[in-house]
Amino acid sequence: MALNPDALGSTSDPIEVAWTSKDALLYAVGVGAGHEELAFTTENTADTEQLVLPTFPVVIGYGRGSAMRHIGSFDPALLVHGQQAITLHRPVPIEGSVTITGEITAMWDKGTAAVVETTSTAVMDDEPLYSLTSSAFIRGAGGWGGERGPSRPKNEPPASDPDHEVTYQTSRDQAFVYRLSGDRNPLHTDPAFAAMGGFDTPILHGLCTYGFTGRALLHAVCGSDPTRFRHVEGRFASPVFPGETLTIRTWSIGDGETVFTTSAGTGDTERVVIDQGLLRHG
To answer: Rounded to whole angstroms, how far apart are CA atoms 214 and 210?
Structure first.
């Protein structure tokens, strides 16, 4: 098995993907929204216009339109989601369709592993709606003599108390709802499959934790206004288990920029699960 570094710059065939109001509602419930966020979880509440969570694009056309098929052969069991970024060019409507094209935008040789970055751009009415940038860390796939790429930590919080701290409780059954938005990987629901991956119990989808984080940033930093939420990025640092508590801490670092971390657990069990987080906002 070997990766093909010449795949850098390769693109996928454009695909058209549509979603409905129901898809946006299901995603919101899957990342923990409920009775306190009726604009995101209902479409028929009096005097309340339905809105879409800014992190919803990660599930639009999930698993489709990727350029990863160009990178060569690798063992998918050795791939983990490394980083995720969303750039919103305008608010996502409650229903619509987009044309998505994926591109391999970076390939880094880490020696015993590789990092592959893909960027997908979604176009609606001939104008960009959002862009998604993801990195995959693939064990055993490096060693072709390529550049190692950036390795220095970024978006580090200052040595001060956070400006905001938001705590959410995930449900023991959180993954069973989130998976209905597209990611049916049995790692998140099947104990036997999780055991093959070295886990005592299924783990929560990383992008579900990302969605909880996005909710906290939206409400704490953006005043619950999706039009103020412009860009978010972060690195997945550790798995989360359904039923754990998530704590999102934010620090303003300048006009329209906030860094953040997400931790799971409490007390002695607390650990950072998303770091190098950055939110750009209005």
So the answer is: 6
